[in-house]
């Protein structure tokens, strides 16, 4: 069944007319006419770090292909048509179980295989020090081990692993992981500037939620944030929920990296969208969700993931920084798409994952593989 979708190109203001089935079969553009009121049209949003959503946790003991499918549907409802399930520090058995569930989900349909390109394993090769470790289970933190990553690949589609490169053997281990077809991100680290640079030389290409997973108080300089901001070979994930990074910090980081070397992630947990209160979670134990949406480890100032989503992050960037709509959209479409090896440009032949939205970033309608999604 063919559908026609109209919307404005955020970059030019032209009217785009798309004919779609599961892909874009035809696209035309024309100047906007006087008085013509249309929303903006953009690719579906991409989130490269989702721990959980809608009461479902990738890291929980009850994770299953059915629950991951339900999570994918819920994310599509807010405009996120591509997402990367994120498995955090745990036993090898637990990591492999989650990977097998993700593999089963992807195998169930081509649409789900497209929506979930691979899994991100955040840990267990992280700093064991308080602060950089965040709320990752210290009993499961272990040395960087490329052989374990290879074993994970036998269980499911590992595409990205976050590591702390603070050990002497980190460059060798990272090079082996990258040579096996897995991207490496620097994160949750107390590594020095030479150690981080050596990791990048070995093939690390991303930074996981830069500015978080780090000591609450740092040396003025050098420190791992400056090193990663200055390193043009690193493309950085940023959590734009107003809690992980204050507006002025987010502004400076975006100016340093630009929209081509930064992307937004939600770091969402199963508590995203839940009522304020105290909760026990599969990851982090006792956590508190406050009225303003801050999710923290009870009794500490440490954040325990996020209770927001990447669509809200887009709105926060537009509201709180100097970025234009086209540049803000790049943070949730073009740049994370490039990390995935995908061209998200609206063009004939592209998968029809689309959203319409307003100037402030509010999502109005969502199409996944050309089908209009019922939104919450």
Write the layout of secondary structure elements.
Elements: E1 3-8, E2 15-20, E3 24-30, E4 40-43, E5 45-50, E6 52-53, E7 56-57, H1 65-77, E8 80-88, H2 92-107, H3 110-115, E9 119-122, H4 146-155, E10 158-163, H5 170-179, E11 183-186, H6 193-202, E12 206-207, H7 224-230, E13 235-239, H8 247-257, E14 262-265, E15 277-281, E16 285-289, E17 295-297, H9 310-320, H10 325-330, H11 334-340, E18 354-357, E19 363-368, E20 371-372
Parallel strand pairs: 5-8, 8-9, 9-10, 10-11, 11-12, 12-13, 13-14
Antiparallel strand pairs: 1-2, 2-3, 4-18, 6-7, 15-16, 16-17, 18-19, 19-20
What is the terminal-to-terminal distance? 24 Å
Total strand segments: 20
The amount of helix comes to: 25-40%
List segments where confidence is low: pLDDT < 50 over at least 5 consecutive residues. none
CATH fold title: TIM Barrel
CATH architecture call = Alpha-Beta Barrel
Enzyme class: hydrolase
Domain Amidohydrolase-related: 41-371
Family: Belongs to the metallo-dependent hydrolases superfamily. NagA family.
Protein name: N-acetylglucosamine-6-phosphate deacetylase
Short characterization:
The protein is α/β, with parallel strands linked by helices. It contains 11 helices and 20 strands. Residues 41-371 form the Amidohydrolase-related domain.
